[in-house]
Write a structure and sequence with these properties.
Elements (H helix, E strand, L loop, with lengths): L6 H8 L19 H15 L8 H41 L42 H14 L3 H6 L20 H12 L4 H12 L14 H11 L3 E3 L1 H7 L4 E8 L1 H11 L4 H10 L4 E9 H6 L9 E6 L9 E10 L2 E7 L5 E5 H14 L4 E9 L2
Antiparallel strand pairs: 1-8, 2-3, 3-8, 4-5, 4-8, 5-6, 6-7
Helix pairs in contact: 4-6, 6-7
């Protein structure tokens, strides 16, 4: 060291600094190396990829807890107010429910206008127990026309009739009120309605017409028109056979067709086809062993064509065919006589369950042609009248 030079002069000449006594150390940073800069850049990228709010999650959780603590009293008050309001509404409704309504003034019964014999359409008229009152005061032929038109116009007539009241129990393979009418069940139902003033009488009359002595069993049902239906109902006073009396009054020839009806053979065929159970048929098997001889009076088709306008309204027409071994019966169809506008109609249910009203003259001509072509012609008509 040169004579007279200080330590600081010597340090500056070497490029270094000398710390003064009592002062902090101030070291000059050297520039970062490329490796350090790369590691710093990588750390900054990792920090940028962290989810937003990660660092503030702990502080935000504390703030949320503070808000919930402040809201709790308000929520409890709201719940209590809502409960008190709901209880008040429920009490109000209960008081309204137990209030006794004021007495209803009795309404006098409305008298229904008489139903004309022509029996107009009943498409939109309701059925209920008072519907029997519609036919009150009408003559029997008009009641027959009325109820026949009712069954024709009401597609749901079987269901409505069954709903009139509790039907009596029967031990038969067929229901008392069928879902679809055939020719005989149509005649039976119209006859029962025409002879009744209420639902109780209707069911009682229906049993009396369909079953011998009103006993609702399979064996007692009037299965055969010429052997059961006509003679049993005539014996019960429900109807009368007027074929011979009318033929004599009109000076027309009254003929007869005879046949031996083998009920046991017919029953065996029903059992084979499953039309009846063995339990229901057991009593019939015991009582139907012997064949039955029948004779049915009738007026020929040609004679009937001369007397169409003289047939009483409401008369039951039974169509008589020739006896043949392949058929168990002589009478194959039934229907009623109704008259409108001077025209005589046959009101009946077809084999397809459709209730129709057709001019009798046209029906007789068509049936005669059809049955002759099939080799089993209609011979004529047997006539019955219902008793009032």
């Amino acid at each position: 060291m040169k004579k007279g030079a200080t330590k600081s002069d010597l340090a500056s000449s070497r490029g270094t600094s000398v710390r003064k006594a009592g002062s902090p150390s101030k070291r000059k940073r050297e520039p970062a190396s490329p490796r350090k800069r790369a590691r710093k850049t990588k750390d900054m990228k990792k920090t940028a990829m962290k989810p937003a709010g990660t660092s503030a999650r702990r502080s935000s959780g504390k703030r949320g807890a503070t808000v919930w603590t402040r809201l709790q009293p308000m929520l409890w008050v709201s719940a209590i107010v809502s409960g008190v309001f709901g209880l008040g509404v429920a009490l109000w409704h209960s008081q309204k429910a137990i209030e006794v309504p004021p007495p209803v003034q009795e309404v006098s019964r409305v008298s229904l206008p008489p139903f004309p014999p022509s029996a107009p359409s009943l498409e939109n008229k309701p059925i209920s127990e008072p519907f029997f009152a519609v036919a009150e005061g009408m003559a029997l032929p008009a009641r027959i026309a009325h109820w026949g038109e009712f069954l024709r116009a009401k597609a749901d007539a079987p269901k409505l009739l069954a709903g009139l009241g509790k039907a009596p129990a029967i031990a038969d393979s067929a229901p008392l009120i069928p879902s679809k009418f055939d020719c005989t069940t149509f005649v039976e139902t119209v006859s029962a309605l025409s002879r009744s003033r209420n639902s109780e009488e209707f069911f009682r009359n229906l049993l009396a017409i369909r079953y011998r002595e009103g006993s609702p069993t399979y064996e007692a049902r009037n299965h055969f028109p010429e052997a059961d239906w006509i003679p049993n109902n005539e014996k019960a006073g429900i109807l009368r056979d007027v074929t011979a009396s009318l033929g004599g009054a009109w000076q027309l020839e009254v003929r007869q067709e005879r046949k031996t009806i083998d009920r046991a053979r017919w029953l065996a065929e029903q059992l084979r086809r499953g039309g009846v159970t063995r339990a229901l048929a057991s009593e019939a098997e015991r009582k139907w062993a012997a064949p039955v001889e029948v004779a049915v009076p009738y007026l020929s088709i040609s004679a009937m064509e001369k007397a169409l306008d003289r047939i009483p309204e409401g008369a039951i027409l039974n169509f008589v065919r020739s006896a043949r071994s392949g058929s168990p019966v002589l009478i194959t169809h039934q229907g009623f006589i109704v008259r409108e506008g001077g025209v005589t109609y046959l009101q009946h249910a077809s084999t397809h369950g459709k209730i129709a009203k057709v001019p009798l003259r046209e029906y007789l001509a068509e049936r005669e042609r059809d049955t002759r072509a099939k080799g089993w012609p209609i011979l004529g008509v047997n006539l019955n009248l219902l008793n009032s």
